[in-house]
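Issue 218. Parser rejects a valid record. Input:
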Amino acid sequence: MFFILIIGGCKFSAEDLNPFTIPIESENPMVVGVSMANMKEDVYKVMKEAIMEYKTEINADIIWKDANNDIRQQEEDIKSLIEQKVDIIIFHAVRTDEPGKEIIRLINKLNIPIVALDRLPKDSKVDAYISADNFRAGQLQARYLADQIDKKGNIIILKGDKNTNVTDNITIGNESELKNNKEIKIIKEEFHHNWSKKLAKETIDQILKDNQKIDGIIANNDKLALGAIAALEENNMSEKVFVVGSDASREASIAIAQGKLDATIDKMSYTMGKKALIVASFIVRGTDWNWDRTIKNGEHDIKLIISPVKLIDKYNIETLEERWGKLPTKE
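Output the parser choked on:
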């Protein structure tokens, strides 16, 4: 169970809170393989920062792999980690459908424990899953947008890659909130391969070309939201359409500070990275640990740890300056 502390006179962020009581100590370092789908996004860079900052405290050696959004490269990365005899693998899947599932099977055959980070391949056995509350993130996005457009109008949902469960979960959160608003019409839902900013811009360009009225846009991540903003700016529509992203990237945070993006969702990526490494140390060293709940993943019971999420807009954007530094309010 996790708690949020509010202490008068002190400044805390949710990322400062350690959900585990005692760091793991061992004379022998454990070897942790980390296989990331890509390292292009700020959220993943922050996860890496957390893991690298905390590795000394729990005596871990880290072998880092970046698949650059290529599932074949990720399979080769995993084979390399296996050859280097890692004790555990932190796995951030390029895809969560059958190709990602096959990689998990490969690791399972060798009895190497796995901590799934951010993404969970379907019907796969892992020892732990560290995730942001993506369903809740989707709800927060939709609720915020509905309030901004007075609960009526035409909106678009820019979805991420169709091969990841994050896309599914955040969109389900959007839809669960919007279904209660009968005067809001979703005029377009579109997947975007590899979460492409360019493809998101093209989606909005086409809708504007078709002269469809848009009141709001919800994007599964900040890159998609920024692609939408680029299209709106080119068509002199940026002040007429509300846009909400997710991930609280540096670029999106600056866009909020400059009045271009209306809101984003902070998924506490530093916390996710830190939790993934700590849980890995507990598993490798046979120490009991706590999880939030157990979820079904096909026939498998998975221990889930949820990272909290928070909506960020112009009224609380300064809370991200500890992460990104001073955010410029002008271009």
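Fixed in the parser; the record now loads. The first strand starts at residue 30 and ends at 36.
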